[in-house]
C-alpha cells in the first residue's frame, strides 16, 4: 500500500474496484484474477503429521515451533527425537552418571556443568 496523489485518486479508486479484491480470510488485497489461487494456496485446510488441522499458510510455523512431532535435540547426549518425547528422555538421560576425572566420584550428567565448582 502506498500514498496516491489527490489528482489520481479517482482513477486509482476505479482501477482498484475493477481489478482488486480483499481476501475474506486475511484481509490482503489480491488481484481478482488471482483470488481463487490465493485462497487455495494460502487458506486451504491441511493436516499436519501430528493430526492438527490448520490453514496451509500456518503450517511452516507450526512445524518449526509448535508441533509436538517437531525434531528436538537432547541437551545431554545430542540425540534427535520428537519434541513430545524430549522431556521424558532428558529426565532419564540427565540421571545417568559419569566418573569425574578430578575427584573420582560418579556425577549425574545433568550436574556435570556445575560439578567443577564443588569438585575437589
UniProtKB/TrEMBL annotation:
A single GO BP: negative regulation of innate immune response
Source species: Podargus strigoides (Tawny frogmouth)
Keyword Transit peptide: no
InterPro entries for this protein: Innate_Immune_Apopt_Reg, TRAFD1-XIAF1_Znf, Znf_RING/FYVE/PHD
TRAFD1/XAF1 zinc finger domain sequence ranges: 78-120
GO MF entries: zinc ion binding
Keyword annotations: Acetylation, Metal-binding, Phosphoprotein, Zinc, Zinc-finger
GO CC, one annotated term: mitochondrion
Function: Negative feedback regulator that controls excessive innate immune responses. Regulates both Toll-like receptor 4 (TLR4) and DDX58/RIG1-like helicases (RLH) pathways. May inhibit the LTR pathway by direct interaction with TRAF6 and attenuation of NF-kappa-B activation. May negatively regulate the RLH pathway downstream from MAVS and upstream of NF-kappa-B and IRF3.
Pfam families: TRAFD1-XIAF1_ZnF (PF21366)
Gene name tied to this protein: Trafd1_0
Protein name: TRAF-type zinc finger domain-containing protein 1
Amino acid at each position: 500500500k502506498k500514498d496516491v496523489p489527490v489528482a489520481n485518486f479517482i482513477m486509482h479508486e476505479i482501477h482498484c474496484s475493477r481489478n482488486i479484491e480483499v481476501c475474506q480470510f486475511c484481509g490482503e488485497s489480491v488481484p481478482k484474477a488471482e483470488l481463487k489461487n490465493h485462497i487455495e494456496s494460502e487458506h486451504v485446510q491441511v493436516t499436519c503429521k501430528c493430526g492438527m488441522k490448520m490453514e496451509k499458510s500456518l503450517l511452516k510455523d507450526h512445524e518449526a515451533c509448535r508441533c509436538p512431532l517437531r525434531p528436538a535435540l537432547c541437551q545431554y547426549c545430542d540425540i534427535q527425537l520428537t519434541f513430545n518425547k524430549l522431556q521424558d528422555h532428558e529426565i532419564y538421560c540427565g540421571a545417568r552418571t559419569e566418573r569425574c576425572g578430578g575427584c573420582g566420584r560418579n556425577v549425574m550428567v545433568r550436574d556435570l556443568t556445575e560439578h567443577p565448582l564443588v569438585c575437589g
